[in-house]
Write a structure and sequence with these properties.
Elements lengths: L16 H9 L7 H12 L4 E10 L2 E9 L9 E6 L6 H13 L9 E5 L4 H6 L21 H10 L6 E9 L3 H14 L13 E5 L5 H11 L13 E2 L2 E2 L5 E4 L15 E7 L8 H21 L1 H7 L1
Parallel strand pairs: 3-4, 3-5, 5-10, 6-9
Antiparallel strand pairs: 1-2, 2-4, 6-10, 7-8
Helix pairs in contact: 2-3, 3-8, 7-8
Protein name: Peptidase M14 domain-containing protein
Cofactor: Zn(2+)
Family: Belongs to the peptidase M14 family.
């Protein structure tokens, strides 16, 4: 960690087009969306329906966006939405979503309609970054007339189903680079002073403060605790600046903040946060934790249909 100013921009002054261009010029491809993600999706086509729901044209690159859906979709069944890679750098969100489809989705055939968007932000995935090329955070951009094409494309995909979704689980990570790069960059972009925070060691969830479902969150935490450790609160009783309302659970106002987990009317919704930099967690554990969270979310919702009906 350093107290030196962020290398782009003037302290106290929000970025303009020149600063955004300078920032974008520093971002380099570090991994391949085609190799890591699209090749895996191809292997799933024999068992699931795969559709292209949009395309991101960021010259010279172009990225097709794919959704994986249950084969034999039945309109009378509830829908489960799983999203990953809204922040492209959050690796287990992408690969945990794909692992869930490969290893667990068949368990829910005939019980729910699944729709999985495993990598919402492929430009960010390749560059291991939180933002899109315009220095916009897709996970603060899920609103009408979204300025982020990644967010707008997903909202168009979900729009016909938004009032039929039973569960939406959005898969994320909190990493050490949140403090070393992404929050300092955010402060610089917005012309604000950077205030250091504390990265929690372990898995946690973000519930919807406007429509909380504490029993649902507890069930996910209990399932994930069998796979990896749960984040404790800090000395203030908080996780990343928000009060911990239950072990491993905080709350945000999902829809007003433009967060992905707020894009449907689902009575059961949550955002997962895996900590991949922990010495106590391997990449395999991180992916497994995401998949376990999805399974636990669906299992709980199917076991509590009366609560679901009341919330819709």
């Amino acid at each position: 960690m350093t107290d030196a100013p962020y290398p782009i921009g003037t302290p106290g002054r929000p970025w303009g087009a020149g600063e955004v261009a300078a920032w974008r010029s520093r971002q380099t491809v570090q991994r391949s969306y085609k190799t890591d993600v699209l090749s895996v999706i191809e292997t799933l086509r024999s068992r699931f329906d795969v559709s292209e729901y949009g395309r991101l044209d960021y010259a010279p690159d172009s990225y097709p966006l794919f959704a994986i859906k249950s084969r034999g979709w039945r309109d009378e069944l509830p829908c489960v939405l799983v999203t990953g890679g809204v922040h492209g750098y959050e690796t287990s969100g992408v690969h945990g979503a794909l692992q869930f489809v490969d290893r667990h989705a068949a368990d829910y055939a005939g019980r729910v309609n699944l729709i999985v968007a495993p990598c919402v932000s492929p430009w960010g995935y390749e560059r291991i970054h939180r933002w899109n090329p315009d220095a916009l955070d897709p996970n603060r951009s899920f609103r009408d007339d979204s300025p982020a094409p990644e967010s707008a494309a997903l909202m168009r995909l979900v729009a016909p189903l938004r009032d039929r979704v039973l569960v939406h689980i959005d898969l994320h990570e909190t990493t050490d680079t949140d403090e070393s790069e992404f929050r300092p960059a955010l402060a610089a972009r917005d012309g604000k002073a950077y205030e250091p925070g504390e990265i929690p060691d372990g898995f946690y969830l973000v519930d919807d403060s406007e429509h909380p479902q504490p029993a649902f969150q507890r069930a996910i935490i209990a399932a994930v605790a069998k796979v990896t450790h749960i984040a404790p609160a800090d000395a203030k009783g908080e996780i990343i600046g928000s009060p911990m309302v239950a072990p491993g659970v905080i709350e945000y106002a999902l829809k007003p903040l433009g967060l992905c987990a707020g894009i449907t009317g689902a009575p059961y919704k949550t955002t997962t946060e895996v900590y991949p930099d922990s010495p106590r967690a391997t990449p395999e554990q991180c992916n497994a934790a995401q998949a376990a969270a999805v399974c636990a979310a669906i299992d709980f919702a199917l076991a509590h249909p009366a609560v679901a009906s009341a919330g819709r």
